[in-house]
Design goal:
It contains ten helices and 15 strands. It starts with 6 loop residues before the first helix and ends with a helix. It has four domains: 71 residues, Helix Hairpins (Orthogonal Bundle); 135 residues, Urease metallochaperone UreE, N-terminal domain (HSP40/DNAj peptide-binding domain, Sandwich), CATH 2.60.260.20; 74 residues, Urease metallochaperone UreE, N-terminal domain (HSP40/DNAj peptide-binding domain); 36 residues, no CATH class. The longest helix has 17 residues. Helix 2 packs antiparallel against helix 3. The chain is α+β, with helices and mostly antiparallel strands. The strands form six sheets. It has a four-stranded mixed beta sheet with strand order 10-11-15-14. The protein has a three-stranded mixed beta sheet with strand order 1-9-8. The chain has a two-stranded antiparallel ribbon with strand order 2-7. Bound molecules: zinc ion (2 copies).
């Protein structure tokens, strides 16, 4: 091998770095240059190899001491792998464990290993009132449950008919050399299960699970938001062959309400007012999300768009006894159909309003500005 970089430089640590510091730096760099993250990048692959080579020496107290005294010469000759480094140590040593920790989830899924049954997803729609108070809902799911015939073992001879896979010795995955790297993949004999079934059960064809429709009770908490996902641990598909079940995820959607709109813990309610009510002031009765009613005082001269806050009459706050507020938004409605008498009264009203010089729009606000506008342009 040509010139070799110093192992401490490779791992970007000082010569006095502690074992912990070396490990930390190694993990960071191994993550960065891992071939899975840099597919087809030869430079990253070479760097990754270099990092592992350096770490293999520096993580070991004795090897590190030897390296400190003799440098690379300490590991040359002696029939080891390329560059004096035994690459098979890759799978056999601590690196495998680190891989497990760093990429456990990733590798597990890639290897198709069945560590638990599949998760299942379902959906439930609730009303705004149910979201306010909390509710118990029955959800129906088609799932896999343990087979009755073989008690979930998958074998006619019960648990005795299930053996540890001879190819992978129960690991569910096998290691294969790929160039410099040892890669893991699902065991072809047991398809990742780690077990093989002898004398398979006819009812479940050796799977240990059968499809079944189940009804599951789901507690939906008060204050739940639209789009919330509730997880029920262990209510997913049975794993079969002694593997624990997956989880059930229930997606909650809250349907639109005919009266209320919700925004977090606050509730909005649009209330129409007659013209005269808005002008004279009044009291109106409004509904509350909790099913009660309350009275709101509307002051004289209320305009469209005015809103009134009712403290503590809003939505329940998740996992708390607190409540948000309710806002009443007022719209003043113009009558579209008038009786003869209403028309007479309004005509009289309008006549009176026109003669009211002091409050007339002709003398205040908008219309005065309009007059100024035209006079200014002449
Ligand atoms: Zn069965
Ligand atoms: Zn196997």
């Amino acid at each position: 091998m040509a010139t070799q970089l110093d192992y401490y430089e490779i791992l970007e640590v000082t010569r006095t770095a502690s074992a912990e510091e070396i490990k930390k730096s190694y993990r960071k760099m191994a993550m960065k240059f891992h071939p899975d993250r840099n597919p087809g990048d030869d430079a990253a692959e070479a760097k990754f190899k270099e990092i592992n080579q350096a770490y293999d020496v520096l993580k070991d107290e004795q090897k590190r001491a030897a390296y400190d005294r003799f440098g690379h010469a300490a590991f040359e000759g002696g029939g080891a792998g390329p560059g004096g480094f035994d690459f098979n140590g890759f799978g056999g040593g601590g690196l495998g464990d680190i891989f497990e920790q760093m990429f456990g989830d990733m590798m597990g899924r890639r290897g198709g290993q069945a560590r638990s049954g599949n998760d299942i997803q379902t959906h439930v729609e609730i009303t705004l009132e149910e979201a306010f108070a909390g509710v118990e809902k029955d959800v129906r799911v088609i799932t896999r449950v343990a087979c009755d015939t073989c008690h979930g073992t998958g074998s006619n001879s019960g648990a005795a008919g299930v053996e540890t896979c001879p190819s992978c010795h129960g690991a569910g995955k096998v290691r294969a050399q790929q160039g410099f790297f040892v890669v893991e993949r699902a065991c072809p004999t047991c398809h990742g299960a780690g077990r093989v079934v002898k004398d398979p059960c006819k009812a479940c064809r050796g799977e240990g699970t059968v499809e079944q429709e189940r009804t599951i009770k789901v507690q939906i908490p008060a204050g739940v938001e639209d789009g919330t996902r509730i997880r029920l641990t262990g209510e997913g598909e049975a794993g079969g062959n002694g593997v624990p079940p997956g989880d059930l995820y229930v997606h909650v959607s809250v349907s639109e309400h005919s009266i209320f709109q919700r925004d977090g813990a606050n509730v909005y309610c649009r209330v129409p007012l007659r013209m005269a009510q808005a002008a004279l002031g009044t009291e109106i009765e409004v509904p509350v999300i909790d099913g009660s009613r309350t009275i709101v005082k509307i002051p004289a001269g209320t305009q469209t768009g005015a809103h009134f806050r009712l403290r503590g009459k809003g939505f329940s706050v998740l996992r708390s006894s607190a409540r948000g507020d309710m806002y009443i938004q007022v719209t003043v409605e113009t009558p579209q159909v008038l009786t003869k008498r209403q028309r007479e009264l309004l005509e009289e009203f309008e006549k009176e309003a026109g003669e009211d010089i002091k409050h007339s729009p002709e003398h205040t606000g908008f219309f005065r500005r309009v007059r100024d506008f035209f006079e200014g342009s002449e």
